[in-house]
Amino acid sequence: PVLRLLEAQLQDQRREHEEEMEALRNQVDLMQEELEKQQQAFLQTLQLSPEVQVELGLQQEITRLTNENLDLKELLEKLEKDEKKLKKQLKIYMKKVQDFEASQTMVPVERRPHERNMQVAVQRKEKDFQGMLEYYKEDEPLLIRNLIT
């Protein structure tokens, strides 16, 4: 069983290697064809007059720059799209932070961590309780706004 497993692995590796070699051969063939085309174009260009050579060179440069500009435009559009997405996320997170801060103002004083130490030193005053929610009178507009929204 171990020998068969090793033979199977070896055959798989051999097959993968042969497929990779075939792909590389095809790639080399395509590169050779492209090189031959470029050499022929270069030889034809050399036979042309200097003015025509300059014109062809300029046309090739214009084509290259146009393609580069298109690539840069695509990149710019992608970055703008990402920027819009990130701005939307920022708005969502800002809203969550505001909601969290608003909910913290509705937490009773005894449960606020930053005010716990101050509460010990202050004597308790009589408070007006309305319903089951304890809040300061000055927090009432904020509470009402949060209940509505």
From TrEMBL:
Coiled-coil intervals, chain numbering: 3-103
Keywords noted in UniProt: Coiled coil
Top-level taxon: Eukaryota
Protein name per Swiss-Prot or TrEMBL: MYO5B protein
